[in-house]
Amino acid sequence: MEVFGVKIFFNVVVVGFLFHLLEVGLASGGGFSVDLIHRDSPHSPFFDPSKTRTERLTDAFHRSASRVGRFRQSAMTSDGIQSRLVPSAGEYIMNLSIGTPPVPVIAIVDTGSDLTWTQCRPCTHCYKQVVPFFDPKNSSTYRDSSCGTSFCLALGNDRSCRNGKKCTFMYSYADGSFTGGNLAVETLTVASTAGKPVSFPGFAFGCVHRSGGIFDEHSSGIVGLGVAELSMISQLKSTINGRFSYCLLPVFTDSSMSSRINFGRSGIVSGAGTVSTPLVMKGPDTYYYLITLEGFSVGKKRLSYKGFSKKAEVEEGNIIVDSGTTYTYLPLEFYVKLEESVAHSIKGKRVRDPNGISSLCYNTTVDQIDAPIITAHFKDANVELQPWNTFLRMQEDLVCFTVLPTSDIGILGNLAQVNFLVGFDLRKKRVSFKAADCTLH
């Protein structure tokens, strides 16, 4: 394994979610796992073979920067973070289908979104997509949702019931993109790694008839894995018990392997080495997975963390666990102290990053840089980040720090989550971490 070849991005493109519920024992509290295909994998529809490693990493940085911009303080209230993600910033793809008979959907799977949606016919003003549009008329299980349903009410201010019957919605994103259409219920089908298809009837999704903005033609929608009521995790809570986990591989691992996301019983993270921290909910409209960071230790030196808040004490829910952001972002004042401490611990030739991404880079061609273990101290949970979680080989002779400064809320990016089983339990309101070799999971 190349220690610094670890660009893991998480937001998943889904193409053919196929399984029969009873076949994998979900009705009795069982579970299932699904492959996560990295955006830059040769198996991904986004893959561009003409791009170099450096170009792919630079693109990932720009997607992260675009995504982080939507987590601005101006987008936050005392009730939590309100604005939605940039829809084109996905990093992983997953296979999913919708309807009867099932129609493949290529959708960005996002832990920071709620509503799952795909483009539907007729689409009078929609972005171009490579795969065929979903046609409700060809599905025997499609039903428009009415205005009085709990699903429609969950849309809040994004819903409209002007005709008094059908529930319609309009979503706006942080970059100005938008989607709108009918809220409907359908059969969602997923393909597990066990090879058995599983179906979930009565799944609420957005059938988009109008869209615009920055969307990739290889994507036909989003699968929401957030904490709000309309997310896939919330809708399937009676069968997966509000539990899921993932294990992210280094991106430059053998191309025949994929990361995995696990649901239900398969999504439980437990056993020796597991640590858990409370999931913080800031109001009913929180879409994201917020936890509390109390500090970092570089070797034996501990740095207390207060986030972007000006309060004297540590504020709960001060960092987002986000699979869709590549790098880890920390408020500037704290970042400066962390970088100084890390740099002091490394003996090597410090150089400028020609890509303009990181301010802490080293000239080296060896497989491992002599970087310290950095321990993230979350409430009730200490997580040791290895060098492959915090440094990345940008090019043949350049290794850079994968933590960056921000003026906004902290974000634990997916590089920091590489080779960890990261579990989410919405019922117990806990997020768990366990160091793991993700090639075995």
Automatic annotation (TrEMBL):
One of its GO terms (molecular function) is aspartic-type endopeptidase activity. It holds the Pfam family TAXi_N. The keyword Transit peptide does not apply. One of its GO terms (biological process) is proteolysis. The keyword Manganese does not apply. Residues 92-434 form the Peptidase A1 domain. Keywords: Aspartyl protease, Glycoprotein, Hydrolase, Protease, Signal. It comes from the Eukaryota. Belongs to the peptidase A1 family. This is Aspartic proteinase CDR1. The gene is CDR1_4.
